[in-house]
Give the backbone structure.
Amino acid sequence: MAFSRLLLCLASFIACAVAAPRAVPEGWSLHRRADPDAVLPLKFTLTQSNIHNLDAYLLDVADPRSPNYGRHWTPAKVAETFKPSKETVDAVHSWLVEEAGIDTHKIRLSQKGDIVHLDLTVAEAESLLGAEYFVYRHGEDGKEHVGCHQGYSLPERVSKHIDFVWPTTHLGSTSLLRRDAGVSTVPGFGRVSGAPKIPVDDVSALAAEGCDTAATIDCLRGLYKYDHTLVSGDKNSVAVAEFSNEVYRPSDLDLFFKTYAPDQVGHIPETISIAGGDPTVSGDLGESTLDIELVMGLLGAGQNLSLYQIGEAANSSVFLDPLLGAVDGSYCELEGVSNQGLSDCGNKPTVNVVSISYHFNPDVIDPTISPIVQRECTEIGKLSLTGMTFIASSGDGGVGYSQSGFCQLANGTLQAGNPKGAFLGQLPASCPYVTAVGATSVAPNNTVDDPEIATTRFPSGGGFSNNFPRPTWQDDAVTNYLDNFGPNYAENIFNRSGRAYPDVAANGWPLVIAESGQFVKSGGTSASAPIFAAIVTAVNDARIAAGKSPVGWINPALYSSAFANAYNDVTKGTNPGCSTQGFNAAPGWDPVTGLGTPNFPELLAAFLALP
Ligand SMILES: *[C@@H]1O[C@H](CO)[C@@H](O)[C@H](O)[C@H]1NC(C)=O
Ligand SMILES: *[C@@H]1O[C@H](CO)[C@@H](O)[C@H](O)[C@H]1NC(C)=O
Ligand SMILES: *[C@@H]1O[C@H](CO)[C@@H](O)[C@H](O)[C@H]1NC(C)=O
Ligand SMILES: *[C@@H]1O[C@H](CO)[C@@H](O)[C@H](O)[C@H]1NC(C)=O
Ligand SMILES: *[C@@H]1O[C@H](CO)[C@@H](O)[C@H](O)[C@H]1NC(C)=O
């Protein structure tokens, strides 16, 4: 196949952008050659305008030194600014009509001008794209999908106007979705490392335990000096995002609230169902319960919590797409990655802060997913421009991907079980527009007044992205770490020039929650993200009360000198993986615990000092 594509490129004397030939993606098998007469609904996802300015636009509203700090854009301005240019639309159109001889009437530009739709037979598509189409079958659910895993080619002059063509190389990575509760043992959901949850028989006895052995809501308040009375609840918003069959039971929330947040008894989050998501179906309770109890427990009844419940229809797509498309109609329209399309399109409300305790793909350069994760991260940046804050757990696999400890072997293969190899980042944590949160614990016999350590219950995720370069706002912090405290691994073990994460940390073990009718000690960076999300929500509450905007994208502020006192620095611990000790926590920023855990009064003061 590579041969015939090469011939095509040579024969036509045009420079070709050819995706590298690849193995059939994990979880899928090659089933049969696609029927040449079958009709393929092709989508060409057009390159957006002004994407190279996204960072500058974002820094203008998020850099604490900017006079426009906090002046977020309207969704309409965002959509208009990034809409593909006429030049892009024309280039693709003239290629299809004038060179490929396709009838103009068959070509349809999406309403928002982001996607070119074109129905072609498999044979026509193969000739247009220099590709070979197959039907693939998914191992777990037997689902079939048409694609061309070996890649496709576009004339160079056109390829710069097209982000990707669908359906082609991306088949969906169902098997790689992981939630970040690395310390749970819920039957039916794979926990590969970490320790089992500890059941608590007598919750009243917990009061006598220290925060090193039972991290209650009161412990979190003590650790982060969080004692804030919310006043802007009716104008503020926060959500947790839950995927697939991760659900909660109101009875568990009440059991928890009776002891730890009496004003929340009888309250549940407001469900925002996406792609048919329904939190009342039977499912796994580990993630959703943890996230909801921590956010509602910390914030109390002064703030309502929303629940983005993303349903099963999301499985075959790229996992964040249903959420991003549901809150942004312009993204939904250009969503070229799901063959079924998205069922919820811009019809769901945005919130000021969203907490995501899942990871979706390893952050590895992979032509079948890289263009799509780039586009997802860009979309997170665009939503941040409107004032949203995205917070994600950094993963429970240390320097490997997920609890299964995927690392990259020398021949490029990803293998689970922490083999020797290159470290793998996690998405979305490594997207620079996401605030990634690592996990800490109170050291044995220490109290809330002592500095926490990187949790030892599981390796907290952290490292360096292969897809996203290091942003300027973290240059000083990361260079300081690499120059003074970094390990001496070979050049190819981790990407020193990549976006480094996590940004911050919060307690991740042993959190006391109520699940399945009893109290348990649970955790993971899964817990750290919603705890930090609650803290940011309280900051927004105070800013709104002061007549200011919500904080939106916080990373440039977090790393700035005005925030130097906003953290409890964590300097002890490591995040092992890939047959190494991983990285070590150190003074200042480090790839285990980021800048440290929040010191709420200082963090609040720093954000209130901004316009
Ligand atoms: C929470 O939602 C309920 C029901 O919509 C509403 O009555 C209440 O005022 C809300 N609370 C806050 C703090 O906004
Ligand atoms: C979606 O994923 C869940 C959990 O892995 C699985 O139970 C369900 O069958 C999948 N649904 C579809 C439509 O593939
Ligand atoms: C890569 O190396 C591993 C371990 O040596 C081997 O099991 C695997 O089959 C190799 N994969 C490829 C594509 O060569
Ligand atoms: C913590 O205190 C207990 C009881 O006093 C003691 O047995 C244990 O060795 C201490 N652990 C550490 C790490 O100091
Ligand atoms: C390392 O990161 C840079 C910046 O994102 C990227 O250009 C480069 O391809 C990465 N290198 C590897 C080997 O992944």
In short: The chain has two domains: 5-48+83-166, 190-205+232-608. The first strand starts at residue 16 and ends at 18. The chain has a mean pLDDT of 87.
